[in-house]
Design brief:
Low-confidence stretches: none
Pfam family, one: adh_short_C2
Protein name: SDR family oxidoreductase
Number of domains: 1
Helix content: 40-55%
CATH class: Alpha Beta
Strand content: 15-25%
Order of helices and strands: EHEHEHEHEHEHHHE
Strand order of the largest sheet: 3-2-1-4-5-6-7
CATH superfamily: NAD(P)-binding Rossmann-like Domain
Bound molecules: NADP nicotinamide-adenine-dinucleotide phosphate
CATH topology: Rossmann fold
GO molecular function, one term: oxidoreductase activity
Keywords: Oxidoreductase, Plasmid
Shape: globular
Radius of gyration: 17 Å
Structural class: alpha/beta
CATH architecture: 3-Layer(aba) Sandwich
Mean pLDDT: 97
Distance between the termini: 38 Å
Family: Belongs to the short-chain dehydrogenases/reductases (SDR) family.
Number of helices: 8
Length: 253
C-alpha cells in the first residue's frame, strides 16, 4: 500500500456526520479525498473545510443507488488524482421506525436500496478499479451494531445492515489474494444528524438509547473515523472480512 499522504480515498455520505469526519481525518493525514453525497450543500461544505485547512478534496454529487453515478465517483478519483486506495462506503439513511406489520413496502425498498444495494454498487466499481492496481487497496463498509442484532421497529435498516456484513465477507473472500482488503465497521449509536432526525433529542429516548451501551453514552463520529483509518492502515494488514464493533459495549450484554 502507498502511505496515507500519497493515497486517494472516496467517502460516500461525506457531506454529514460520520462521513464528513472521516473525510476530514483522511485529509488531515495528507490523503486526497473524493467526497460523494446526494447532499450537494453538505458535500461542498466538507470539501471547503478540508481545503481551508490546506487539504485536497473534490465533491462529486453521487446517489449510491445509481450505478452510473457510483462509477462516475470512482472515475473522478482516478481522473483527478490518478488512483484509488481507500473507499469508505458510508452513505445511509435511518428509514422509518415502524413494526414489520405496518412497515410500508416502498419504505422497505428505499432503505434496502440506499443502505444495501448502494454499498454493492460502490464496491463493484471500487473493487474493479483496485484490482487493476499493483498496490491493492482497502474498502471499509459502514454497517452498524444493527448489522449484528435486531432492533424493534427498524426491520429495513437492520436487514440492510446485516446484508452489508454478508457483502463484506464475500468480497473479502473473493479478494484474499488480490491485495484488496474488505472490512466493515459496526458503530453503536453515534451523535449525528441521522440520530437527531430519528428523535434522539427527546431526553427519554436519548437516555434509553444511551443505556443500551455499557459506557452509557453515545459515540462520536471521530471514534468511528479512527476505526476506519486503522482498518485502512498497514497496521491492519492481516485484517480482512472483519466486522469491527465501535459500540461502547452495546453487544457485550
Ligand atoms: P448522516 O449524518 O445523515 O449522513 C449520511 C449522509 O449520507 C447524508 O449526507 C445523506 O444525505 C447521505 N445520503 C443519504 N442517501 C444517500 C444516497 N442515496 N447516496 C449518497 N449519499 C446519501 O448520518 P450518519 O449518522 O453519519 O450515518 C452514516 C452511516 O453510518 C450510515 O450508513 C448509517 O447507517 C451508519 N451508522 C450510523 C449510526 C448512528 O448512530 N449515527 C450508527 C451505526 C451506523 P441526506 O442528508 O441528504 O440524506
Amino acid at each position: 500500500m502507498v502511505s496515507f499522504d500519497q493515497a486517494v480515498a472516496v467517502v460516500t455520505g461525506g457531506g454529514s456526520g460520520i462521513g464528513r469526519t472521516t473525510a476530514m481525518e483522511f485529509a488531515d493525514r495528507g490523503t486526497s479525498v473524493v467526497v460523494a453525497d446526494v447532499d450537494v450543500t453538505g458535500g461542498e461544505e466538507t470539501v471547503s473545510e478540508i481545503t481551508d485547512d490546506g487539504g485536497e478534496a473534490l465533491f462529486v454529487e453521487t446517489d449510491v443507488t445509481n450505478t452510473d453515478e457510483t462509477q462516475a465517483m470512482v472515475d473522478a478519483a482516478v481522473d483527478e488524482y490518478g488512483r484509488l486506495d481507500y473507499a469508505f462506503n458510508n452513505a445511509g439513511i435511518g428509514g422509518e421506525q415502524t413494526p414489520i406489520t405496518d412497515y410500508p413496502a416502498a419504505e422497505w425498498q428505499h432503505v434496502i436500496d440506499v443502505n444495501l444495494v448502494g454499498v454493492f454498487n460502490c464496491m463493484q466499481a471500487e473493487i474493479r478499479r483496485l484490482q487493476k492496481q499493483d498496490s491493492g487497496g482497502v474498502i471499509v463498509n459502514n454497517s452498524s451494531v444493527l448489522g449484528k442484532v435486531g432492533f424493534e421497529t427498524s426491520s429495513g435498516y437492520a436487514a440492510a445492515k446485516h446484508g452489508v456484513l454478508g457483502l463484506t465477507k464475500t468480497a473479502a473472500l473473493e479478494n484474499g489474494e488480490t491485495g484488496v482488503r474488505v472490512n466493515a465497521v459496526c458503530p453503536g449509536f453515534i451523535e449525528t444528524p441521522l440520530l437527531t432526525e430519528g428523535g434522539i433529542n427527546d431526553p427519554e429516548m436519548r437516555e434509553g438509547i444511551e443505556q443500551r451501551h455499557a459506557m452509557n453514552r453515545l459515540g462520536t463520529p471521530a471514534e468511528v473515523a479512527n476505526a476506519v483509518l486503522w482498518l485502512c492502515d498497514d497496521d491492519a494488514s492481516f485484517v480482512t472480512g472483519e466486522a469491527l464493533g465501535v459500540e461502547g459495549g452495546y453487544l457485550s450484554q
